DNA sequence: CACATATAGTTAGCTTAGCTAACTAATTTC
DNA sequence: GAAATTAGTTAGCTAAGCTAACTATATGTG
């Protein structure tokens, strides 16, 4: 009879999403740090693990961070032996970054540890809510990445 | 025929959600700061605007932050005349916080400004995706708040 | 009642993560 | 081959989180 969807105003959705993201990340920080990888480090490392070797600029772009920020993150991860720099044979200004074996192991461990937190919590949601969260994550990624936020 | 839902492993959902939240907030930071309120300030102010006057400990708990962190956020917002401290008549150790008129106005302005960013982007999504984001925000909030992440 | 303990908030000081500006070195372009 | 561009780093700033230690008030108990 009534085909209208009760559609919360976009500004409300935006506010709630914003606050929810802030609080969720605050909450996850402890778990992250206990695993030996900060959130930003884990996120960058996952790009390297899944995306394969790439140079610093590409990684910074993928993570939507400025080069100096990524440079520091990489320096720290390198100091812990988690990533390796190789000179780029095709451009001697550049470097190629890739995870070390230790880096991959650490990433898996952090992932496991997050499993006892976020993914444990997610796993306890009804299946359809899990699917919803997955889709929401994809949408958030697209929003963060797209031109709509300029 | 096949009733099985293709259910991404919870760890994958967790990873994607984690990275998506990090990137979305990074992306929003500029807009936030251009509006004169940082993300954490806007979030705390919204709690005061919608939740009414409360003391510092309650606000810190609502924002899932330690008291010293909230104390600093409040001090900064107070310096800009956005929130007011009143002594708590029932406990002279405590303070009661409430937004000033300027604070409410600033909150609305930040909200508007975010409208030109996040909520503009959200408004351009299909209606069902908007509803999905709203539900996802509620779930994230519940996860951040609940005991599941201990 | 007095003293011990607990609680609300602040201060001090540390860390991490973001940024811009300025620099070096290599590459590309004209 | 000189000029302009690009990749990455260094230096230095700010914001936001934390713990530890402190002050002042409340509360509870012998």
Describe it.
Two copies of one chain form a homodimer. Chain A has 150 residues and is mainly alpha-helical. Chain A has a single domain, classed as Winged helix-like DNA-binding domain superfamily/Winged helix DNA-binding domain (Arc Repressor Mutant, subunit A, Orthogonal Bundle), CATH 1.10.10.10. Chain A contains six helices and three strands; from the N terminus they run H-H-E-H-H-E-E-H-H. The first copy, chain A, has a three-stranded antiparallel β-sheet. In chain A, a hairpin with a 7-residue loop joins strand 2 and strand 3. In chain A, helix 2 packs across helix 3, helix 2 packs across helix 5 and helix 3 packs across helix 4. The longest helix of chain A has 25 residues. The relative contact order of chain A is 0.11. The mean pLDDT of chain A is 88. Chains A and B meet through helix 1, helix 2, helix 5 and helix 6 of A and helix 1, helix 2, helix 5 and helix 6 of B. The structure holds a DNA duplex (30 and 30 nucleotides).
Notable traits:
DNA-binding, globular, three-stranded antiparallel β-sheet, mainly alpha, 150 residues, homodimer, Arc Repressor Mutant, subunit A, 67% helix
Rg of chain A (CA only)? 18 Å
Number of helices of chain A: 6
Total strands of chain A: the figure is: 3
Coarse morphology of chain A: globular
Number of domains of chain A: 1
H-E order of chain A: HHEHHEEHH
Strand arrangement in the largest pleated sheet of chain A: 1-3-2
What is the distance, rounded to the nearest whole angstrom, between the alpha carbons of the first and last residues of chain A?
39 Å
Considering the protein shown, what is the CATH homologous superfamily of chain A? Winged helix-like DNA-binding domain superfamily/Winged helix DNA-binding domain
Looking at CATH, which topology of chain A would you report?
Arc Repressor Mutant, subunit A
Return the CATH architecture of chain A.
Answer: Orthogonal Bundle
Largest sheet of chain A: 3 strands, antiparallel
The helix fraction of chain A, in percent, is 55-70%
Strand content of chain A: 5-15%
Mean pLDDT of chain A: 88
Oligomeric state of this protein: homodimer
**Uncertain spans of chain A:** none
């Amino acid at each position: 009879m009534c085909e209208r969807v009760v559609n919360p105003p976009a500004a409300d959705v935006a506010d709630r999403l914003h606050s929810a993201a802030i609080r969720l990340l605050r909450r996850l920080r402890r778990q992250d740090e206990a695993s030996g990888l900060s959130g930003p480090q884990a996120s960058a490392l996952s790009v390297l693990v899944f995306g394969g070797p790439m140079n610093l600029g590409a990684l910074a772009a993928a993570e939507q961070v400025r080069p100096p920020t990524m440079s520091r993150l990489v320096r720290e991860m390198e100091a812990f032996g988690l990533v390796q720099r190789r000179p780029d044979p095709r451009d001697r200004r550049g470097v190629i970054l890739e995870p070390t074996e230790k880096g991959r192991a650490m990433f898996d461990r952090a992932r496991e540890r997050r499993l006892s937190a976020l993914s444990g919590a997610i796993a306890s949601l009804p299946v359809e809510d899990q699917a919803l969260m997955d889709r929401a994550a994809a949408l958030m990624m697209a929003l963060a990445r797209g031109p709509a936020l300029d």
